[in-house]
Design a protein that fits this description.
By secondary structure, the chain is α+β, with helices and mostly antiparallel strands. The chain has 16 helices and 13 strands. The strands form 3 sheets. The protein has a 6-stranded mixed sheet with strand order 8-9-10-13-12-11, with helices on both faces. Strands 1, 3, 4, 6 and 7 form a 5-stranded mixed sheet that branches.
């Protein structure tokens, strides 16, 4: 599968938006829902007549104007202008709804409006702001207000040079580094309105795709070798990716601009390859558990002891048939070339000769686990430890420190 530079640049931005906004945004609540709250300015105490008149029941969360909240601001962190937004000459105002706690810190922050490429930077900055507590009858209460964050570019913004330096202009290889940015600018000129279509697509992805739940523990972490010094666990995003692909295909039918970009930038054969690859990835995800682990280990062990895998991929097996599926997938991707991956079951691992090609990665499919390693000896060693129910890594300080943060 070979994508053109224009397609890669555009898809990279779309992924950047989706991940950044997903991490920054929390559940949206309309500002109109708080219109029944009482607004009171602490600098103007009630008159005697107001004190004797029946008073409405006051909520412990006060809605105040942006101006009043601005007067209580004691620490402001300016947002970092996103380099890609600067390069695309994107500017504007991001409006956020903020819930300020009784201690003056931001408790909750949601996006009301603003460009998707600017919103994550605004959210990251405002969540660090600090306010004086808002007092009602001498007692601090929570505040519901709006915050505006402005992103402006001048025709010759000095920040452009800063962004260019971040991308390596001073490294002597500016042309190569700037190529994706140039491709993006070219793409937006060729397809007017494409950026807006990406924004609309992003909104649908944010509201319609169900992402994996946050995990608080790992069943795979204690299984790793004692020599493990690096550990990364990834949720199984198969279902989420499949939903995203379905939404993208639906948008292709509804948006002429998006459809023109996709069809013209990719030949029919390449377009089919992309969709086939994503469909295969989804099918593979259905065989695997909720967690996929990549770990790295220290090859240096005790003298004469079997070597631990220096690179290990580990996942639970959800249903039978994984070995046949992987073998078919490897065969299809290899085409007429020699496969770079060999798939084995436990019996084949035992009988395999030690003369396997060194450049060939290995995948062991057990009834309970899928294990990937770079060489036969270390894969056999790790499989033997699994059979012996070894939990040596669980007793290491590294495992104890990381177990609560998975």
């Amino acid at each position: 599968m070979k994508l053109t530079s224009n397609v890669i640049a555009a898809l990279s931005i779309l992924v950047f938006w989706s991940v950044s906004v997903s991490k920054a945004l929390v559940e949206f609540e309309s500002p109109q829902a708080a219109q029944g709250s009482v607004i009171q300015d602490p600098t103007h105490p009630p008159t005697e007549q107001e004190q004797t008149s029946p008073r409405p029941q006051v909520s412990q969360q006060m809605r105040v104007s942006a101006g009043v909240a601005q007067g209580l601001l004691v620490r402001k962190v300016n947002p970092i202008y996103p380099p890609l937004a600067r390069q695309a000459r994107i500017s504007g105002t991001v409006i956020l709804r903020a819930i300020i706690g009784t201690d003056g810190s931001i408790e909750n922050l949601t996006l009301v409006s603003g460009h998707p490429m600017l919103a994550p930077a605004a959210l990251d900055a405002v969540k660090q702001w600090k306010y004086k507590p808002y007092l009602l009858n001498g007692k601090p209460v929570k505040v519901d207000t709006q915050v505006q964050v402005n992103f402006a570019l001048s025709p010759s913004s000095p920040g452009d040079d800063i962004a260019a330096n971040l991308y390596g202009r001073q490294s002597g290889d500016a042309a190569a580094v700037a190529q994706p940015e140039a491709a993006l600018s070219q793409l937006l000129k060729k397809y007017p309105g494409l950026l807006a279509e990406f924004g609309q697509l992003l909104g649908k992805l944010q509201h319609s795709v169900q992402y994996p739940a946050v995990r608080g523990q790992s069943r795979l972490l204690p299984l790793l070798p004692k020599s493990t010094i690096l550990y990364a666990a990834f949720p199984n995003y198969g279902d989420a990716a499949h939903q995203a692909l379905a939404i993208f295909q639906q948008e292709l039918q509804l948006s002429p601009v998006l459809r023109a970009w996709w069809q013209q930038e990719e030949s029919g054969a390449n377009e089919k390859k992309v969709e086939d690859f994503l469909e295969k990835a989804y099918q593979l995800s259905q065989y695997l558990g909720d967690e996929i682990v990549v770990s790295g280990g220290n090859e240096i062990g005790e003298l004469g002891a079997a070597k631990d895998p220096n690179l290990l991929i580990l996942a639970e097996v959800r249903k039978p048939g994984l070995k046949d599926f992987l073998q078919q997938m490897v065969k299809e991707f290899a085409g007429r070339s020699e496969p770079s991956v060999r798939v084995l079951d436990v019996q084949e691992l035992t009988a395999a000769k030690d003369t396997l090609p060194a450049q060939q990665a290995l995948i062991l499919v057990r009834p309970d686990l899928m294990v990937g390693a770079s060489d036969l000896a270390s894969l056999r060693n790790f499989n033997a430890r699994l059979n012996a129910s070894s939990r040596e890594f669980a007793a290491t300080p590294f495992c104890a420190a990381d177990r609560t943060g998975v």
